[in-house]
Amino acid sequence: MKKVFTLLIFALTLNVSYTQIEAGLLFSLTTASTLEINSITGMQQGQMLFNTDTRELFIFNGSNWVTTTNSNWLLTGNVGSAGSFLGTTNDVSMNIRSNNVSMLEFGRRQTLGLVQNYLDYTDGNQYLTYVKGNNGVSALQFQADAAAFYKPMFFTNSDGNFRLKGSAAGTDFFEIGSNGVSNNGELEFIIADDGAEPFLFKRFDYRDQQLKELFRIQGSANSLNAKPRVGVNTGQMANSTFQVNGSMSTAITRINSSITLTEDHHTIIMTGGFPNITLPNANSCLGRMYIIKNYTGSNRSCSIYRTDNGGTSTQIRNGGCYVLQSDGVEWQQVMRD
């Protein structure tokens, strides 16, 4: 390592001035390569040298050699040039703070200590922007001057839930996110705040460059007690709790042996053999409906149900078609051919 020590003498004398700076008066520093700098021991805070590899001034801050402001980012901003960047050149996370609270960290998942043995969290080489905050919760908010109340924001809460909340049409808002505590999680979709704002599901068609509505969910009116309305291919508020402008399809099953009906069934066609039907407990499926048709050539048996005249029966007659519905207490025959 080459060391050059030159004594700089400033002569301040009255009535003496220099018309130019003389080379002999310039101050020189110890020069060294990066390799040489990294091998120095016993440094003291405030010592300086010149890196001949990077052509930068370095000062020892008590623990590390750091560059001076000739290459640092200044509090008042910098004039950028091609290749300028703010960050690290080695595998160390970059940390941005406010009030000495870490707000943003950048780096590999492994470097940030965020590798977990769960799907999508195992790649230690995945580069992340880690949004942090105080007391284990964080938020990312966006400017939206036209939003009167609900500024758009991603945020977490103390229960570990992650949510998105934002403005809609200036004074309304929407919110999407997880909710719940103690392993009882749920996903919420919220639209507010008058009562009839819709959830719209649309598709885009490249041929005519138009958005086309698929279905919507909304309240029946701008009122506190608005009822839910679901419309498929309606283009406007549904006229009932559920409205479909188009065809519908439900499950249909052909059987020739006995069967216990479940939530997977709707229409049962008894085609032959010796099939009998067992219905689920009526109190387990309030409102569920089954259609049962028998053309086996003989009457078949079924769990007990209440007939259309108020009696009870366990028979599905040959050639008959029955509609049975649970009232939460027993099965009711609501239609028969």
Task: Describe the protein's architecture and organization.
With 337 residues, the chain is mainly β. The chain is 1% helix and 38% strand. The chain is built from 1 helix and 25 strands. It has a 5-stranded antiparallel β-sheet with strand order 8-9-10-11-12, with no helix packed on it. Strands 17-19-21-24-25 form a 5-stranded mixed β-sheet, with no helix packed on it. Strands 1-2-3-4 form a 4-stranded mixed β-sheet. Strand 14 and strand 15 form a beta hairpin. The longest helix has 5 residues. The chain is elongated and about 120 Å long.
Question: What secondary-structure arrangement, pairings included, does this model have?
Answer:
Layout: E1 31-32, H1 34-38, E2 48-51, E3 56-60, E4 65-67, E5 94-98, E6 101-108, E7 127-131, E8 139-141, E9 153-156, E10 162-168, E11 172-179, E12 186-192, E13 199-205, E14 210-219, E15 228-232, E16 242-244, E17 252-255, E18 259-260, E19 267-270, E20 277-278, E21 289-294, E22 300-306, E23 312-316, E24 321-326, E25 331-336
Parallel strand pairs: 1-2, 15-16, 17-19, 18-20, 19-21
Antiparallel strand pairs: 2-3, 3-4, 5-6, 6-7, 8-9, 9-10, 10-11, 11-12, 13-14, 14-15, 21-24, 22-23, 24-25
